[in-house]
Each structure stands twice: as C-alpha cells, then as structure tokens.
Amino acid sequence: MKRIAHSAQRTAQLILALDVDTLEKAERLVDLLYPIVKIFKVGSQLFTAYGPEAVRMIQKKGAKVFLDLKFCDIPNTVAKAVESARGLGVNMLTVHTFGASRQMLRATVKAAKGSPLILGVTLLTSLDREILREFGIRRLFTNEVIALARMAKEEGLDGVVCSPREIQYIRKMFPEEFIIVAAGIRPKGYPSDDQSRVATAQEAIKAGADFIVVGRPVLEARDPLKAIRQLIE
After folding, report:
1. Domain residue spans of the chain
2. The whole model's pTM is what?
3. Which CATH number applies to 13-232?
4. Which of 41, 70, 113, 172 is an active site residue?
C-alpha cells in the first residue's frame, strides 16, 4: 500500500467515511460493507467520541483504517500525535498543509518512519475563492492547491487530499508515486450540501485519483450496500 502503480487502465480504491455518531452504527456499516469496502475513514466525530476503540473495531474486522484528523500544530506536537497513530497501526493519516510549516511536515514524515502513509490536506472541499480572499490569498484557487501539493511532495509526504477539480493538475505535475485522495465525491443529481467543489467518482478516477472518499451519499442511503455497489459500477 506504500506506493501506487499507475497505468493506462486506472482504478481507484474506495474509502467509506464513518461519519456517524455511535460506534454501533459504525460497526454495522463495517459488517455490512466489508470486504467490498476495504478501507474505512475515522474522522473527528467518531474519534472524539470513541478514540482508539473505533480504530481497533475496524481492524478486528480485517479492514484498514484511514485516520483523518488533519493534524496541524507545532512540529513536536504533531510528531507525537503521528507516533501515537503509528502505534495504533493505522494505514493512512492526514495533516493540514494549508497553515502548516515545512518543519511540521518534515517532523510528520520523520515520526511516521515509512508507515502510515502521510497525506496532506490541501484546501477543504467546503472552501471557495471568496473564502480564500478573506484569508488574504489572491492567487487562483487551483494555483494555491498546486503550491500546497508541491510543498507536500518536497517535504516527503506520500500524497495529498484534494477535491476532484484539482486532481488533473496535481497528477500532471506528479505522474508517478504520489498518492491523490479525492474528497467531495457526489453521484450525479446528489446535493453538494456544504461542499463547494464536487464531482462524481468516475470523474475523479478519470482525472487521476488513487482513492476516493465517500460519506453521506452512502451513509444517508436507504440501502448503503446498494449505494456502494452502484458507486463501484
């Protein structure tokens, strides 16, 4: 899982975001969807409520864990957090690149010691150009994402998380051995909710994604298993 081999016939792995409010709901979803889904994302909601228990539950089922806590702090604090995540045996985790220092990113990579995969979150899919202007950032949105992805690569991160709209530019810049995780995946006709930059799974894969993260379109479906199968198809 450390490196992704790219080919003309591109495929991507599906990650389900377990953004639910109880461990019981999370466990039911894992029981229902594994091994069709082999990687489950544990984010702030589930981890804040249940901590490592949520991670261990997924691992006991045989699935892999994507710990999406978007660490961003002084280098030493983030390094210690990564060491703790490494001790849990998670397979992937996230740190922020927007607002992070290069020293923090280097400390993250050093603490990971090659595993888990370290992914830099570029710009959240809820952000748009107007919000960037409020931050005082005047350059084009895509250029900001590209700059953050380049910094992540230069500091040794394994890849980045971005919206589907920026994938093609990052893949063109880094065609090999740089993981791209697509967030903001929405089936056609599904509301974008609080996301500003979305696309379908097919569009994200065609652009060059290695992983696609799906949450609400599956979690809110009357039949989550059917929703997953439709996404895979």
Report:
1. 13-232
2. 0.91
3. 3.20.20.70
4. 70
